[in-house]
Design goal:
mainly alpha; MetI-like fold
Length: about 350
C-alpha cells in the first residue's frame, strides 16, 4: 500500500471547498440582475396605512382646536358685551335719580338753607341747618359704635378661622343684614328710650350702628381673605407677633377695600328714616347733646314731603340733594385718600 506522506493537508481542504471567487462568479450579480429603470429612477418611501391614518387624525384635531378657539373668542366677546350692557342698565336709574334730584332741589339750595333753622308754617325762607348737623352727629355716633365691632368681627372671621363659631357669626351677620330697619328701631326704642324715658341722639346712633354691622363685617372678611398668605408668612418669619402682623400688614394692605365697605354702610344708614322716628325723633333747634332729641335730614325730608305746603316740598328736594351730596363727597373723598395711600404703600 503506497501512502503519499508528503501531501499537504491544505490541498485536501481546498479540494473539498471551492474557492470563494469561483462560487461568486457562478452566481449572477445583483447589479447585473437589476433592470436599468430601477437603478436610475428615485425610489420613494412607501407610507404605511397607519401613518396615513395618524396624519388624518392630526388634521382633524387641528381643525377641531381651531373651531374651539374661535367659539371661545366669540363667547368671550359676547360676555364682554353683556357685561357692558348690564353696567349701563344699572347706571341708568342712578344717573336719572341724581339728575332729577339736582333739577328739583337746586333752586331751593342756598346759604340760608344750610345755616338757618326751619321757619314756622307760612313764613318764607328758613333752612335745615340743624338737620344737617344732626345727621352728621348721628352718622358719627353710628361709626364709633359700628365700625370697631364690624372690623373686629370681620378680622376674626378671616384670621381666626374657627369652623363652628365662624359659621355662627356669619349666620348672624346675614340675618341682621336682612332685618328691616324699623325692627332695629323698635328694638333700640325698647332698650334705651323706654329705659331712660327720653329720645336721644345716642339711641339713634346705636340703631344706625347696628344696621352698619353686617355690611362692615362681611366686607372686612372678604377683603382680608384677598390678602396673599405670603405676606402673613413673611411677616411671621421676621419674628413679628401675629397681632402686629394683622394690624400693620394685613389690615393696612386691605385698607382700601375695607373703607369701601365702610362707605357702603354709611350710604345705607344716611337715608334711614324709620329707626330714627323711634329713637332720635326730631327737633327744630340746634343739637345740644347726645342725650337729647336731635333733628336729621331723613326725618325732616319725610315731614316736609308729606306736608301740603309747596315751600316745604321745595325744601324737601333741597334736603334730598344735600343728603346725596354728603354721601357722594364722603365716598369720593375716602376713595381718593385711601387710593393714594395704597399707591404709596406699593
Amino acid at each position: 500500500m503506497n501512502l503519499n506522506l508528503n501531501r499537504d493537508p491544505g490541498e485536501e481542504v481546498r479540494a473539498a471547498d471551492p474557492e470563494p471567487e469561483t462560487a461568486a462568479a457562478t452566481e449572477p450579480s445583483a447589479v447585473e440582475a437589476a433592470p436599468d429603470d430601477a437603478l436610475t429612477a428615485p425610489r420613494e418611501p412607501e407610507q404605511e396605512p397607519q401613518e396615513r391614518g395618524a396624519l388624518g387624525r392630526d388634521g382633524e384635531l387641528r381643525r377641531h382646536s381651531e373651531l374651539h378657539r374661535r367659539s371661545r373668542i366669540i363667547r368671550s366677546d359676547l360676555a364682554h358685551i353683556l357685561c357692558a350692557l348690564s353696567t349701563l342698565i344699572a347706571m341708568i336709574p342712578l344717573v336719572l335719580i341724581l339728575f332729577y334730584v339736582i333739577y328739583q332741589g337746586a333752586g331751593a339750595l342756598n346759604l340760608d338753607f344750610i345755616t338757618q333753622l326751619p321757619k314756622p308754617v307760612g313764613e318764607p325762607g328758613g333752612g335745615m341747618g340743624n338737620a344737617i348737623v344732626g345727621s352728621l352727629m348721628l352718622m358719627g355716633i353710628a361709626a364709633v359704635i359700628g365700625l370697631p365691632v364690624g372690623v373686629l368681627a370681620g378680622t376674626f372671621l378671616a384670621e381666626f378661622r374657627s369652623p363652628r363659631l365662624s359659621w355662627f357669626v356669619r349666620l348672624l351677620a346675614d340675618i341682621l343684614s336682612g332685618v328691616p330697619s324699623i325692627i332695629v328701631g323698635v328694638f333700640v326704642y325698647t332698650l334705651l328710650v323706654l329705659t331712660f324715658k327720653q329720645f336721644s341722639a345716642l339711641a339713634g346712633g346705636l340703631a344706625l350702628g347696628i344696621l352698619m354691622l353686617p355690611t362692615v363685617a362681611r366686607t372686612t372678611e372678604e377683603m382680608l381673605r384677598m390678602v396673599p398668605d405670603s405676606l402673613r408668612e413673611a411677616s411671621l418669619a421676621l419674628g413679628i407677633p401675629r397681632w402686629r402682623t394683622i394690624i400693620s400688614v394685613i389690615i393696612k394692605t386691605a385698607g382700601g377695600g375695607i373703607m369701601t365697605g365702610v362707605m357702603l354702610a354709611i350710604a345705607r344708614i344716611a337715608g334711614e328714616t324709620a329707626p330714627l322716628l323711634f329713637t332720635a325723633l326730631n327737633s327744630r333747634t340746634w343739637p345740644t347733646g347726645i342725650d337729647k332729641p336731635v333733628a336729621s335730614l331723613p326725618v325732616q325730608i319725610y315731614q316736609y314731603a308729606i306736608s301740603p305746603f309747596d315751600a316745604w316740598h321745595q325744601q324737601a328736594w333741597a334736603g334730598s340733594l344735600v343728603l346725596v351730596l354728603m354721601v357722594l363727597i364722603l365716598s369720593v373723598g375716602s376713595k381718593l385718600y385711601f387710593g393714594r395711600k395704597m399707591q404709596r404703600a406699593r
